[in-house]
Amino acid sequence: MTTMLRPGDSDYDSELAGFQTAVSRRPDVIVAATSAADVVEAVRYAGEHDLPVAVHSTGHGVGIPFEGGVLVTTQRMTGIRIDAGIARVDAGVRWGAVIEAAAEHGLAPLSGSFPGVGVVGYTLGGGFSLLGRKYGLAADQVTAIEVVTADGELRRATPDTEKDLFWALRGGRDNFGIVTALEFRLVPVTRLYGGSLQFGTASLATVIRAWRDWAAEMPREMTSSLAMVPMPDLPVVPEPLRGQHVAQIRIAYLGDAAEGERLVAPLRAAAETLGDTLAEIPFTESGKIANEPPIPHGYRADNATVSELNDTMLDAILEHAGPDAPAPTVVLLDLLGGALSDAPEHPGVGWDREARFTVRALSVVDHVAIPEIRAAHGKLFDALKPWSTGKLLTFVYGETGADEEASKVYSPADLRRLTGIKAAVDPANRFRLTHNVEPARDAG
Ligand SMILES: Cc1cc2nc3c(=O)[nH]c(=O)nc-3n(C[C@H](O)[C@H](O)[C@H](O)COP(=O)(O)OP(=O)(O)OC[C@H]3O[C@@H](n4cnc5c(N)ncnc54)[C@H](O)[C@@H]3O)c2cc1C
User: Fold this and answer.
1) Nearest residue CA, atom 38 of ligand 1?
2) Residue 126 CA, closest ligand 1 atom number
């Protein structure tokens, strides 16, 4: 019998808990799914009671707040199987578990900076991997998706069956159903040269320019991001980082350590480093590269993809999100290009293959109110607008205007196709408690 929780039940709040703590969701019913059959039952229940349905895995990417409806939680669906270089994972699996399982086969998944993130949510958002410039998006490696659609049917979408659904899910996410299992190719990686270089406030402006110039010369074996992180002036932060606005350059290089050392030499020479963790490491330790804190908290984030990072843009980033910014903001600059710009055989939707960098801004909401953060992020992204080519839904976190997102994320042609598919598979818009793609009004 499927476990259903209602407000007032003792486990209701703990079942809703996740990494993001600043988005309120109060469903009428939580279905704690343990299998695809439970998900089918939940979606059929929602249909019978005319309720909207949402899905929650780890809570890293929680989007809009809501009240009412049915929320399906997937964290108990943790099966993993690896066969002939293909991983099959159930809906609640996190990357850390796949990294460990794949390593036993001499393989790695296209996982990202943080092993605690959920495989399904990450992959349906495109999936920007530590190995992305060499192997492309995680979504490009997907071979099959099992999904419960609004009619309560469990379907299998592949490049050959349910082709529209296969396309729409990889970018359109939970607008089209609740995924119960994913199958995707692994890549032959066991070790890499990686880690981070850290620099202090005084070198911030120099280092971001040095990284931008350096990035232009890198082969696709090099995936790299630069994080600007305001470190609090508190005893919990170790010296010498305490109180510094740190520039953290993240490196994941697929090649031998000697060549890695040669490639990063200009970065090491750019300014005095406060920290340097670069070394050859097994892929199972790839979470140490970014070393992101595993503690749940409230945050709000937005992003833009951009065609370049010129000096005007870097000045704007420093002005609106640097040491003197009104709301403390973590900025992440990701180098795109390489295989992330290649056209895969079976592309998904909502990822800009022409963009050269992403600019992401994230602020913790515990000390600064959300309207102030939205205003501060708004100023930053307004300043970048002349070079902005779009935005990535997967890096939009916390409260945003739900309706405004779809038109900014998808091209008009893609949005038309998405709304048409939505009208075919979810005409009642049962899956609307998300950045919603509405069903086309003029369909059939
Ligand atoms: C610390 C941190 C590091 C990150 N690093 C990276 C990175 O390196 N690369 C990258 O690309 N992204 C990264 N992300 C973004 C992350 O991939 C997205 O936030 C993703 O949506 C998280 O999925 P989740 O299942 O863990 O979270 P959840 O909040 O549980 O789910 C988020 C969304 O995923 C979708 N989803 C989840 N499960 C299902 C399902 N079964 N069926 C249908 N839809 C589903 C839904 O749209 C849901 O709203 C990071 C996020 C954080 C907070």
Assistant:
1) 121
2) 11
Report angle CA 298, 78, 138 to the nearest 5 degrees.
70
- Give yes or no: residues 320 and 213 share one domain: yes
Pairwise CA distance, residues 304 & 95, whole Å: 25
Q: Taking a C-beta distance cutoff of 8 angstroms, is the pair 32, 15 a contact?
A: yes
The answer to whether the Cα torsion of 208, 214, 215, 216 is positive or negative is positive
Cα separation, 98 vs 122, in Å, equals: 13
- 197 and 340 both lie in a single domain: yes
Q: In the numeric block, which tokens belong to residue 222? A: 């090099």
Q: Count of residues for the chain?
A: 444
Nearest to 133 by CA among 250, 234, 16: 250
The arithmetic mean of pLDDT across residues 314-339, rounded, is 96
Q: How far is the CA of 123 from the centre of ligand 1 (A)?
A: 8
Residue nearest to atom 45 of ligand 1 (CA): 121
pLDDT at 173: 96
Count up the domains in the chain and report the number. 3
286 compared with 63, residue with greater pLDDT: 286
Q: Return the closest-CA partner of residue 114 out of 130, 135, 137.
A: 130
Q: Judge whether 436 lies within some domain.
A: no
φ, ψ at 117 (rounded to 5°) = -70, 150
| C-beta of residue 280 within 8 angstroms of C-beta of residue 247 | no
Q: For residue 61, report the distance from its CA to the centre of ligand 1, in Å.
A: 4
| Strand-by-strand arrangement of the 3-5 sheet | 3-5, 29-32, 70-73, 53-56
- The residue whose CA has the least distance to atom 26 of ligand 1 is 118
* Residue 202 clears pLDDT 80, i.e. is over it: yes
Domain presence at residue 421:
no
Model pLDDT for residues 96-106, shown as the tens digit of each residue: 999 999 999 99
The residue-averaged pLDDT of 223-247 equals: 95
Instruction: Please tell me the distance from the alpha carbon of residue 204 to that of residue 439, in angstroms, as a whole number.
Output: 46
Distance 394 CA to ligand 1 centre (A): 7
**Residue labelled with tokens 């953060």:** 373
Taking residues 180-198, report their average pLDDT: 98
Domain housing 101: 80-185
Give the residues surrounding ligand 1 with Cβ less than 6 Å away. Answer: 18-19, 55-63, 74, 91, 112-114, 117-118, 120-122, 124-125, 127-128, 173-174, 178-179, 292, 394, 434
Same domain? For 117 and 230 the reply is: no
pLDDT exceeds cutoff 70 at 1: no
Indicate if 250 and 396 belong to the same structural domain. yes
**pLDDT tens-digit profile of 15-49?**
999 999 999 999 999 999 999 999 999 999 999 99
